[in-house]
Amino acid sequence: MPVPLSAGARALLEKPVFAHLATLMRNGSPQVTPVWIDTDGTYILVNTALGRVKERNVRRDPRIALSVTDPQDPYRRLQIRGRVVEIRTEGATEHIHKLSYKYRGQPYPLRPGEQRVILVIAPEHISGNAL
Length: 131
Prior knowledge:
The protein is α+β, with helices and mostly antiparallel strands.
Protein backbone atom coordinates (compact mmCIF):
# COMPACT_ATOMS: atom_id res chain seq x y z
CA MET A 1 0.00 0.00 0.00
CA PRO A 2 1.47 3.39 -0.94
CA VAL A 3 2.21 6.06 1.65
CA PRO A 4 -0.50 8.74 1.29
CA LEU A 5 0.48 11.95 -0.48
CA SER A 6 -0.21 15.02 1.66
CA ALA A 7 -2.08 17.98 0.20
CA GLY A 8 1.23 19.88 0.00
CA ALA A 9 2.96 17.01 -1.80
CA ARG A 10 0.08 16.69 -4.28
CA ALA A 11 0.10 20.45 -4.90
CA LEU A 12 3.82 20.41 -5.73
CA LEU A 13 3.51 17.32 -7.95
CA GLU A 14 0.64 18.94 -9.87
CA LYS A 15 2.74 22.01 -10.73
CA PRO A 16 4.98 21.97 -13.83
CA VAL A 17 8.08 21.08 -11.80
CA PHE A 18 10.88 18.83 -12.94
CA ALA A 19 11.77 15.81 -10.88
CA HIS A 20 14.98 13.84 -10.90
CA LEU A 21 14.23 10.12 -11.10
CA ALA A 22 16.89 7.70 -9.87
CA THR A 23 16.78 4.09 -11.03
CA LEU A 24 19.31 1.29 -10.63
CA MET A 25 21.52 0.01 -13.42
CA ARG A 26 22.23 -3.70 -13.77
CA ASN A 27 25.49 -3.30 -11.80
CA GLY A 28 23.67 -1.49 -8.97
CA SER A 29 24.93 1.98 -9.80
CA PRO A 30 22.37 4.80 -9.81
CA GLN A 31 21.10 6.40 -13.01
CA VAL A 32 19.34 9.79 -12.72
CA THR A 33 17.10 11.45 -15.31
CA PRO A 34 15.13 14.70 -15.15
CA VAL A 35 11.47 13.89 -15.84
CA TRP A 36 8.04 15.45 -16.07
CA ILE A 37 5.76 14.17 -13.31
CA ASP A 38 2.08 13.78 -12.60
CA THR A 39 -0.04 12.26 -9.87
CA ASP A 40 -3.46 10.68 -9.74
CA GLY A 41 -3.64 11.60 -6.04
CA THR A 42 -2.31 8.25 -4.84
CA TYR A 43 0.46 7.29 -7.25
CA ILE A 44 3.16 9.29 -8.99
CA LEU A 45 3.12 8.97 -12.77
CA VAL A 46 6.15 9.28 -15.04
CA ASN A 47 5.79 8.95 -18.80
CA THR A 48 8.64 7.57 -20.88
CA ALA A 49 9.25 5.72 -24.12
CA LEU A 50 9.53 1.96 -24.33
CA GLY A 51 13.18 0.91 -24.39
CA ARG A 52 14.68 3.90 -22.61
CA VAL A 53 17.19 3.23 -19.83
CA LYS A 54 14.82 4.15 -16.98
CA GLU A 55 12.10 1.87 -18.37
CA ARG A 56 14.53 -1.05 -18.74
CA ASN A 57 15.93 -0.43 -15.26
CA VAL A 58 12.56 -0.45 -13.47
CA ARG A 59 11.49 -3.64 -15.24
CA ARG A 60 14.53 -5.33 -13.71
CA ASP A 61 14.45 -3.52 -10.33
CA PRO A 62 11.35 -1.43 -9.54
CA ARG A 63 12.96 0.61 -6.74
CA ILE A 64 13.22 4.33 -7.47
CA ALA A 65 13.94 7.65 -5.79
CA LEU A 66 12.61 11.06 -6.82
CA SER A 67 13.79 14.52 -5.91
CA VAL A 68 11.38 17.39 -6.59
CA THR A 69 12.13 21.10 -6.07
CA ASP A 70 9.72 23.99 -6.48
CA PRO A 71 11.24 26.43 -9.04
CA GLN A 72 9.55 29.40 -7.30
CA ASP A 73 11.10 28.40 -3.96
CA PRO A 74 14.14 26.10 -4.29
CA TYR A 75 13.99 25.37 -0.56
CA ARG A 76 10.53 23.81 -0.98
CA ARG A 77 11.22 20.19 -1.84
CA LEU A 78 10.23 16.55 -1.66
CA GLN A 79 12.28 13.39 -1.58
CA ILE A 80 10.35 10.23 -2.42
CA ARG A 81 11.44 6.61 -2.38
CA GLY A 82 9.16 3.97 -3.79
CA ARG A 83 8.54 1.28 -6.37
CA VAL A 84 7.15 1.10 -9.86
CA VAL A 85 4.09 -1.09 -9.34
CA GLU A 86 2.80 -0.98 -12.92
CA ILE A 87 4.07 -0.13 -16.38
CA ARG A 88 0.99 0.96 -18.28
CA THR A 89 0.68 1.34 -22.04
CA GLU A 90 -3.04 2.11 -22.07
CA GLY A 91 -3.56 5.87 -22.22
CA ALA A 92 0.19 6.59 -22.31
CA THR A 93 0.11 8.58 -25.57
CA GLU A 94 -2.72 10.76 -24.28
CA HIS A 95 -0.86 11.16 -21.00
CA ILE A 96 2.36 12.44 -22.65
CA HIS A 97 0.29 15.03 -24.52
CA LYS A 98 -1.37 16.08 -21.22
CA LEU A 99 2.08 16.45 -19.63
CA SER A 100 3.39 18.37 -22.64
CA TYR A 101 0.53 20.86 -22.34
CA LYS A 102 1.26 21.18 -18.61
CA TYR A 103 4.98 21.84 -19.17
CA ARG A 104 5.16 23.37 -22.66
CA GLY A 105 1.63 24.43 -23.64
CA GLN A 106 1.57 22.28 -26.77
CA PRO A 107 1.25 18.63 -27.89
CA TYR A 108 4.22 16.32 -27.49
CA PRO A 109 6.25 15.73 -30.69
CA LEU A 110 6.04 11.93 -30.90
CA ARG A 111 8.69 10.19 -32.99
CA PRO A 112 7.48 7.73 -35.66
CA GLY A 113 6.94 4.32 -34.04
CA GLU A 114 7.53 5.62 -30.51
CA GLN A 115 5.56 3.67 -27.90
CA ARG A 116 4.88 5.55 -24.68
CA VAL A 117 4.48 3.93 -21.25
CA ILE A 118 3.44 5.27 -17.86
CA LEU A 119 5.53 4.26 -14.84
CA VAL A 120 3.08 4.05 -11.92
CA ILE A 121 5.06 4.70 -8.74
CA ALA A 122 3.84 3.81 -5.26
CA PRO A 123 5.53 6.11 -2.75
CA GLU A 124 6.95 4.22 0.25
CA HIS A 125 8.77 7.06 2.03
CA ILE A 126 8.24 10.81 1.62
CA SER A 127 10.25 13.54 3.27
CA GLY A 128 10.91 17.23 2.70
CA ASN A 129 9.29 20.47 3.63
CA ALA A 130 6.60 20.57 0.91
CA LEU A 131 4.42 18.22 2.93
